[in-house]
Amino acid sequence: MPEKIKVIVNEDRCYLCGGCAGVCPTLAIEVHSSGWEFLQDKCISCRICISACPVGALSAEPLEVSE
Amino acid sequence: MKEMKYDVVVVGAGIAGPIVARNVAKSGYSVLLIDKKPAIGTPKQCAEGISIKVFEKYDIPYDKRFINREIYGAKLYSPSGYELELRYKEASGVILERKVFDKMLAYYAAKAGADVLARTEALDVIRKDGRIAGIKAKHEDETVEIHADVIVAADGVESTIARKAGINTYAPPHEFDSSYEYEMLIEGYDPDLIHLWFGNEVAPRGYVWVFPKDEDRANVGIGINSDNPQTAKYYLDKWLKENNIPAKKILEVNVGVVPVGGFVKELVKDNILVVGDAARQVNPMHGGGMAEAMEAGTIASKWIVKALEEEDLALLRNYTTEWWETDGERLQKVLKVRKVTEKLSDEDLDLFIQILSGADAEKIAGGDYGEVIKALLKHPKVILSPRRIKLLRELL
Ligand SMILES: Cc1cc2nc3c(=O)[nH]c(=O)nc-3n(C[C@H](O)[C@H](O)[C@H](O)COP(=O)(O)OP(=O)(O)OC[C@H]3O[C@@H](n4cnc5c(N)ncnc54)[C@H](O)[C@@H]3O)c2cc1C
Ligand code: SF4
Ligand code: SF4
Hints:
The complex is a heterodimer. Chain A is an alpha+beta fold. Chain A has helices at residues 19-23, 48-52, and strands at 5-9, 29-32, 35-38, 58-62. Chain A is built from two helices and four strands; from the N terminus they run E-H-E-E-H-E. The radius of gyration of chain A is 11 Å and the shape is globular. The interface between A and B is medium-sized, with 21 and 35 residues. The site of one iron/sulfur cluster (SF4) has 12 residues of chain A, from helix 2.
C-alpha cells in the first residue's frame, strides 16, 4: 500500500492547463475555470498527477489519519 | 435555475467540438456548443502546426486571420548535431494562430446555426430514468440544465464529462506527454521549416521543437513522457541554456499534457460520444491532435445526423466502428512505431539521421516507411548490430 497522500497545488506555478485532471485515474482533480480543486476522498495516492505536471506545480503531503 | 433543450449539446470548443457543432447544425438540428473559457481559444495549449491539407478536407476557409506562416518542410537534429532536411517546393503546412482559429471554428458553428456559450462549464451529467438526459453547467454564478438527445464530450485532455458519463477514457501514465512551451523571439533558424531536436538527454521519448510564427518569433517547446521524474519545463530550460539561446523575450508560456496512446475503445455509450483529445485521438509519434480531432469530429457528426434523421440513437455506435476501421487503425500502427523508436539510443538516432536522405524522410512522412526500413537493414552500420536489426524488423 502506498503512503496515503494529500496533493497540494502551488497556485503561483499552476497554469490551470488541466493536465493533472486528465491523467488522474479517479477524477480526484478538477480544473475549473475558477481554479484547481482536489477531492481527497477519490484520491488513491498514486502520484501520477505529480509527475505529469509540466511545471512541477504539484507536491504531496502525508495525509494525517484521524484516529 | 435556467433550463434549455437542444437536439445536441457539445462540451468543449477546441477543435473537435466546433467541427461537430457546425456539421450537425448545417443539417438543421438544434445544437449548443459550450466552453468553460471566457474567450474561446485563449489561452492556447499548442505549437500550432498543422498540415495544409486540412482546410480543403474539413471545409475550413484558408483565412489569413489565423495563419501565421506557411511552412515548407522540416529539419531534424540528432543528439550529436547531425541534420536531416525535408523541403517541399510548395507549402506543406501552416503555423496557425490558435486563439483566432478556435474562435473562428466556433464562429463557423454559430453561422451554421449552432448556439455558442463561452464561460459555460459543464459540471456533471443529468441522469433521468437510467439514462443521461443532458448536462448540468455553470455560467458565471448561474446553474444551467441543458437537456439534449445527444451529448458530445469534446472536453480535451481532462475528459471529465466523458468520464462522468461512464465512458472509460483511462490511459496509463506512460501514454501521456507533458509539454511546456515559450512563444518567444528566437533567431538563427530557417523560418520556412519546423525544427525538431531528438535525444534521450534532450527530450526523453519526445523532442524539442521550434515552430516559426515570424522571421524571428516562434513557438519553442518540448514534450517528454509524463511519467518522467523531471518536468518538461526543466528539460526545455536546460536545452535553451545549453544552446545559448537567450530566454529573455518571452511572449507567452504554454503548458499542457497530451495523450499519445491509449485510444478509447468504446467511443459511444448510449447517447454520449467522445471526440478528440478526450478520446485520446492524437498521433502518438508527434503529439499532434488537431487533424485527428477534425477527422473524429467529422465521423461523429455524420452518425449523429443519421441517428437524428432516422430517430434511432443506436446508429451512434457506428462512430466507434468507423473510427476504429479508419483513423484508429492508422494511429494504432503509428503507436507501434513510437514504441519501437522509444527504444532508440542516442547513437542510434545519430546513425539514422546521418544515413537517411531527404527522400527517405519524405517517404517516412508519407507513412511509406517499409521501403526505407528495408534499405536501412542493408546498411553496413546496421548489419553489424543485431540490436538495431531487431528494432528495425519490429517496424516491418
Ligand atoms: C504544448 C502543446 C503543443 C501542441 N502542439 C500541437 C501542434 O503543433 N499540432 C497539433 O495538431 N496538435 C498539437 N497539440 C495537440 C492539440 O492541441 C490537441 O490535440 C487539440 O487541441 C485537440 O482538440 P480537442 O478539441 O480535442 O481538445 P481541446 O482543443 O483541448 O479543446 C477542449 C475544450 O474543452 C473545454 N472544456 C474542457 N472541459 C470543459 C467543461 N467541463 N466544460 C466546458 N468546457 C470544457 C476546454 O476549455 C477546451 O477549450 C499540442 C498540445 C500541446 C499541449
Ligand atoms: S498539470 Fe500542473 S499546471 Fe496543469 S493544472 Fe495541473 S497543477 Fe496546474
Ligand atoms: S495522486 Fe493519483 S489519484 Fe490522487 S489526485 Fe494524483 S493522480 Fe489522482
